[in-house]
Amino acid sequence: MQQGFDHELDKLLSNLHSVYGLLLEQTEQYERAVRAANIEQVSACAARQRGLNERIAELELRRRELLAPWTDPLQDTHAGPGIQEVIKKLPEAAHNRLNAKADALRALVSIVASKTASARSATSWLMNHMEGLMLEVSSKLSDSVVYERRGRVRQGTSVATGLDLTL
């Protein structure tokens, strides 16, 4: 039982590390696409990120199933025990190996969280910038100017306009 558990936990940590690594790559691509204002690439990156997040959710369910037998019935924790708590209870050889993997995963998750926050900020900036541009263009199109007899330009009446932004 112990050796099979060690192997399953090792496999789970490896899978999580792999998926978070891919998520980091996608987040960096997404951020570059936002900076370039490449809407098609932003959309494609977001779709791939959704797929990776779904995979992480599946792995999280697997983690809960795997760690469920280690749950203390007297503890009232909704998520069950953490990986670190369980690793502490394993033999030293498995403990050291799995602890190193868990630490590497924790560091990677932290980097992904930081990059995601940065990408979220860049996305917000781009959306605000585009909204400002659209308001400026709309206001320029909505105002009319007329020439008076003496060649002076004066403000005319407002004109109803619209922009078709479909690609």
Structure description:
The protein is mainly α and 167 residues long. The chain has one domain (2-142): Methane Monooxygenase Hydroxylase, Chain G, domain 1 (Up-down Bundle). The protein is built from four helices and two strands. It has helices at residues 2-35, 39-67, 83-88, 92-142, and strands at residues 145-147, 153-155. A two-stranded antiparallel ribbon has the order 1-2. Helix 1 runs antiparallel to helix 2 (39-67) and helix 1 (2-35) runs parallel beside helix 4. It is rod-shaped and about 95 Å long.
Topology:
Blueprint: H1 2-35, H2 39-67, H3 83-88, H4 92-142, E1 145-147, E2 153-155
Antiparallel strand pairs: 1-2
Helix pairs in contact: 1-2, 1-4
